[in-house]
Amino acid sequence: MGISEFYAGQTLLITGCTGFMGKVLLEKLLRSCPEIERIYVLIRSKRGQSATERLESLLKSKLFDKVRNETINIQSKIVPVCGDIVEEKLGLSDEDIQILSQQVSVVFHSAATVKFDEELRLSLQMNVIGVKSLIELCHKFKKLKALIHVSTAYANCDKNVIEEKVYDPPLNPNRLIDAAEWMDNDAMNSLTVKLLGNRPNTYTYTKAMAEYLILQECGDLPVAIVRPSIVGSSWKEPFPGWVDNYNGPTGLLVAIGKGVLRCMMGNFNGTADILPVDIATNLMITVGWHTAVNKPEKLMVYNNTTGQLNKFTWGQMERFSYEYFMKNPIDEIARVPNPRFTKYLLWKDLNVIFDHLLPAYVMDFYLWIVGRKPIFVKIQDKLWKAVKSLEFFTSHEWKFANDNINMLAEHMTAKDREIFDFDVRKIRWGQYMENYCLGTKQFVLKENPQHLPKARRALQKLQRMHFLMNAVVFMVVWRLLINRVSVAKSLWNLLIGWALFIFQKIPKLARST
C-alpha cells in the first residue's frame, strides 16, 4: 500500500500546526494526500483570536496557495479543536475527547517550545508534561495506527555519537514533574544549571526527557520518534525558500544580511546540520505510514540529519550568505555584510569589541546628535543573547546514525520516494542557500522583490562609505605612528623614496622602448 493510499480515509490529529513545521506538514498532507477524511488540529486561542480564526488566517497565507488552487473546499477537511498542551487533558472538553477517541487513527505531535532560553518550568510543561497528557489521551483512541512524536537530533547532544535509540535521561521525568508541583520558580531556576549538566539549554534537556517518557508510558501504542536537526527553509515544497520565523539559522541570516552580525564562535570546517523543513515533514508522513502499515515490533527512532550524507559546513554558510546577500541585499542594512566564524574565543571577543560594540556606539552617538533615538547598542545586546544560545551548536559536531532512515527509503515505492522525498543527498547547498536568503527577504522581512535595485544602490553607497572610513582610520593611525615611532617614520620615508625612484625611471624606460 502506497503512502497516499494509506492516508485515504484516515482521520488525523495534529498538534503544533501553527508552528513552522506544523504548517508545512498540514499543507503537504492536504496537497499530496487529498483523500484524507479529516484533520483535527489542536489550536489555542491567542491574542483575542479564537482557534477557528487562527486556522482561517493560516489557510489564507501564501504557504497554502497551491492547496487552495488544487483542492476544493479545504476547510471542510480541517477541524480546529480548541486546546493547549500545557493544560490538563490538553485543555480539551469531554465532548472533544470523545470525538477524537472514536475517529483519530494517526497523530502527529509537533507542538513544543523551541526557545533555547526558556525557563525550565515552562519548557517542562510544554515539552514533557504535554507529551505525558498526549500519551494518556492516545491510550483512549480506539482506531490509533500511528503516533509520531517530533523530537530533536540534539536531545542527546551531551554525546558525540548519537544512535537511533532512546537514551536514559539524567533524571526520571516523573520525579521532575512531581518536584515542579511544589517548587516555586526561584527554586526551579536555581536548580536549572545543575540539572542541565552538559546540555546547553532547557530545550534539549526536556526533549530528552520526553523521549524517555514516551518509551516508558507508551505501552502497546504504535509510536515512532522523529529527530530533525536544525530546521531551515523549504528545499522544494511548496516552493523553494519558504520560511516564516527567526528561529535557528534564519535569525543568523537576517543578522548577517543586515550587517550587524560579523563574527561568532563556530567551527569553520564543522558540520552545519541544516535540514530543509519539507524534508522533515516528508519523513514524518512516511514514518506515519510505515508505523501503521509495517507495525514495527519496537519503538523506532529516526535521526533526520544531513551531516553524514551531504555535509554542509559553517564555512560554506559564511561564504554563501555573504555571496547571496551581496548579490541580493536586504532593503535596510546597517553595514556591509561580512560574516566570519572562528573557533578562537579571543579573536571573537576582539571582534565583538571593535567590529560590533564600538561601531554600535559610534552610530548611536550619530543618531543622538541628529536628534534620533539610539538603537544600535540595544540591537547588539539582543543579538548577542541570541547568538550565545546558538554558539554551542556552531562550535560542536556530532555523528548521527541514519540506519532507520535508509531502511525506510527501501520500503518505499519509486513513486512515493518522488512525492515524499527526504533524500538529503539531492540537496545542492549553493542553490538552497540562495533560495533561503531570498526567502528570508520575502517571507520573514516581508520585502518587495521590486525594491531590489534600490537595495543594491544602497549597498554600493555603504561600500564606498566603508572604504572611505577605513582609509581615514588608516591614515590617522599611520600618521600617529610616524610622529611617535621612529621605525614607522623610517619605513614611510623608504616607501616614499622607492615610489619616487620608480616614477623617475618610468619615462626613461618608455623612451628606451
TrEMBL record:
<comment type="similarity">
    <text>Belongs to the fatty acyl-CoA reductase family.</text>
</comment>
<keyword id="KW-0444">Lipid biosynthesis</keyword>
<comment type="function">
    <text>Catalyzes the reduction of fatty acyl-CoA to fatty alcohols.</text>
</comment>
<dbReference type="InterPro" id="IPR036291">
    <property type="entry name" value="NAD(P)-bd_dom_sf"/>
</dbReference>
<dbReference type="InterPro" id="IPR013120">
    <property type="entry name" value="FAR_NAD-bd"/>
</dbReference>
<feature type="domain" description="Fatty acyl-CoA reductase C-terminal">
    <location>
        <begin position="356"/>
        <end position="447"/>
    </location>
</feature>
<dbReference type="GO" id="GO:0005777">
    <property type="term" value="C:peroxisome"/>
</dbReference>
<feature type="transmembrane region" description="Helical">
    <location>
        <begin position="465"/>
        <end position="481"/>
    </location>
</feature>
<keyword id="KW-1133">Transmembrane helix</keyword>
<protein>
    <recommendedName>
        <fullName>Fatty acyl-CoA reductase</fullName>
        <ecNumber>1.2.1.84</ecNumber>
    </recommendedName>
</protein>
<keyword id="KW-0443">Lipid metabolism</keyword>
<dbReference type="GO" id="GO:0080019">
    <property type="term" value="F:alcohol-forming very long-chain fatty acyl-CoA reductase activity"/>
</dbReference>
<dbReference type="Pfam" id="PF03015">
    <property type="entry name" value="Sterile"/>
</dbReference>
<dbReference type="InterPro" id="IPR026055">
    <property type="entry name" value="FAR"/>
</dbReference>
<keyword id="KW-0812">Transmembrane</keyword>
<dbReference type="GO" id="GO:0016020">
    <property type="term" value="C:membrane"/>
</dbReference>
<keyword id="KW-0521">NADP</keyword>
<dbReference type="Pfam" id="PF07993">
    <property type="entry name" value="NAD_binding_4"/>
</dbReference>
<dbReference type="GO" id="GO:0102965">
    <property type="term" value="F:alcohol-forming long-chain fatty acyl-CoA reductase activity"/>
</dbReference>
<keyword id="KW-0472">Membrane</keyword>
<dbReference type="InterPro" id="IPR033640">
    <property type="entry name" value="FAR_C"/>
</dbReference>
<keyword id="KW-0560">Oxidoreductase</keyword>
<dbReference type="GO" id="GO:0035336">
    <property type="term" value="P:long-chain fatty-acyl-CoA metabolic process"/>
</dbReference>
<feature type="domain" description="Thioester reductase (TE)">
    <location>
        <begin position="14"/>
        <end position="284"/>
    </location>
</feature>
